[in-house]
Each structure stands twice: as structure tokens, then as C-alpha cells.
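Appendix B, example 12.
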Amino acid sequence: MRMPIIAGNWKMYKTLAESVSFVQELAPHLAPFNGVERVVCPTFIAVAAVADALKNTDIKVGAQQLHWETQGAFTSQISPTMLQGLVEYVIIGHSECRAYLGETDETVNKKAKAALAHGLKPIVAVGESLAQNEAGETESFVSGQVRGGLAGISAPDMANVVIAYEPIWAIGTGKSASGDVANSIIGMIRGVVRDLYGNDVANALRIQYGGSVKPENMAEYMSQPEIDGALVGGASLKVADFTALVKAAAESKGV
């Protein structure tokens, strides 16, 4: 069975002090649920302090972005070597980065390869717009993102990759895909990975759902056989909500 993974993407929320205080409060609430992998992804200024605050727990830390080069004249960017020893995961290709920061399938692929080369585990986000969804283009568009993002990544490296399906129209809108629909698209994504790498890699790959995930609908998603967790925005910013999400995942998957 694939170990469920719940990752909290804090986006541009929480100061350094707020981040440390939050994880200090959160950690004991999440401690009982060690059958679920729990990840928090703070802003860059808080990564080191949050990692230090969680060093005696089994809660993992992730970054929200990285550059594919190890160093250079790339003002504002963070390299994979700067993240080594601080984080285990890094989110790559989030729709907000694609929409506002010019992220493409090509840069997602470069960043995923760089992360893997430096011992970091990429959470590769994919998802379609509302217009694409309504035009019936979801499968073709998302499968293209998956193929582009994974191009040239080896089968052994896929053991350290997580994919997050986040329909753009469901992020921060209060709208969300139904459990059945999310499960169907994630099953399609797993099928693309099966075409690329075979059954063993596809069956082991963890694929999350993201997009207005909250305690009220978490069980609906986690009861689906293809959905292995969630990449969560707003609901990861409150201790009670994040705890409820992890608890629901543990109960639904029986871990």
C-alpha cells in the first residue's frame, strides 16, 4: 500500500515567528498519525527555522520552489544546494508559479531533475484551467504536463517523485472536483506513468489531489483508491484543520 502524504503549502503566509510558533503547536497534534507522511512547506525565510523546530519530530519540511542551477546570477532564486539538509520535499510547477512566474513544462522538468540530483523529492503539480476543463481538454492537457515534467527522469528516480493533481479552477476558489472526478483524472495520470515506466513504477507512485481541500471533504477524496493524499493550501494554515485532514487520511486509508 502507498503511504498517504499530506503536504501543507503555506504560500505567502506566516512570518518567521508565526511559522515557528505554528509548527511547535502543530507537532504534538500530528504525532499520533505516523502512518501518514506529513509535510509543511513554509516560505523561504522560515524554512531553516521550521526545520530546526521540527528536527526531533517525524514531520517533514518542504520548499515551495527552487531553481535548476546550483549557483549563479539569478537574483531572488534559491538553488537545490541551498535547500540540502533543510528540506526533504520541494513543490515544483504549482499553477500559481505557472500563471504568474512563467513556469513551463520545460522549467518544471529542469527543476525536477535538479531536485532529484541533489537528494530532494519533487512534488510536481499539474492541472487544467476552467476553460480547458469545460472544453473537455483535461486529459490531453494534464497528460501533456505529466509527460513534459517527467521527461528524461529515470525509473529509479521516480521512487522519489510525488505528483499533485490540482485543477486550477479549484485552487483558492472554494470549488473542488468531486471525489469521483478527481479519482478518475488521477487514475489517468497513473496510466500515463504506466505507459512511460511500467506497472511497478505506476503502482508505487503517490499522487495527491489539491484544490479547496478542507476537513469537510477530505474523507471523500481519501476514500478513493487512486488518491494518495493532498496538497493543501488554506486548510494547512490552521492547526485544527491540518490535524483534521491528516486524521481523515489515516482513517480512510486504515493506517
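The longest helix spans residues 179-197. The first strand starts at residue 5 and ends at 9.
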